[in-house]
């Protein structure tokens, strides 16, 4: 019997997971695009970030990141604030409305993933948990990029 390709299986599972997460959010009308949602998530996780730092995380030019923030600021989800330590620096701060939106999205995603897990036997859920923890630990020990920089 041929051994399954573990990397291909993980890649396929990741595609399914992304589909579950995207479907959980896309069923509901959001006032932001997936890219804007990602920006809000990045800003929420990094309270000291400025436009240049955001552009680096997004792998875009600073002017593109700035335009994204302009749109988010116009709809009340981001505000720009001078850094108290260096007034030349401008920090990007998600508003309370942005944090509320992110909480709602996280809740929907959690519910969607839980619905899939509920269809799995408890033993398989525990095996999955152990495998995911081991994968995360192995990833951290190799200096892999922070997962939160790639997701929303």
TrEMBL record:
GO terms for biological process: response to stress. Residues 3-138 form the HTH marR-type domain. SUPFAM superfamilies: Winged helix' DNA-binding domain. InterPro entries: HTH_MarR-typ, MarR/SlyA-like, Tscrpt_reg_MarR-type_CS, WH-like_DNA-bd_sf, WH_DNA-bd_sf. It comes from the Bacteria. GO terms for molecular function: DNA binding; DNA-binding transcription factor activity. Keywords: DNA-binding, Transcription, Transcription regulation. PROSITE patterns: HTH_MARR_1 (PS01117), HTH_MARR_2 (PS50995). SMART domains: HTH_MARR. The keyword Acyltransferase does not apply. This is DNA-binding transcriptional regulator, MarR family.
């Amino acid at each position: 019997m041929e051994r399954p390709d573990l990397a291909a299986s993980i890649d396929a599972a990741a595609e399914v997971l992304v589909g579950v997460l995207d479907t959980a959010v896309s069923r509901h009308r959001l006032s932001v695009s997936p890219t804007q949602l990602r920006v809000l998530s990045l800003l929420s996780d990094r309270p000291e970030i400025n436009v240049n730092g955001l552009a680096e995380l997004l792998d875009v030019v600073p002017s593109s990141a700035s335009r994204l923030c302009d749109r988010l600021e116009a709809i009340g989800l981001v505000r720009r604030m001078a850094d108290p330590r260096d007034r030349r620096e401008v920090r990007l701060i998600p508003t309370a409305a942005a944090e509320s939106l992110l909480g709602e999205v996280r809740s929907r995603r959690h519910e969607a993933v839980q619905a899939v897990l509920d269809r799995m036997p408890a033993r398989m859920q525990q095996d999955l948990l152990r495998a995911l923890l081991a994968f995360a630990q192995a990833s951290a020990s190799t200096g892999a990029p922070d997962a939160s920089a790639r997701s929303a």
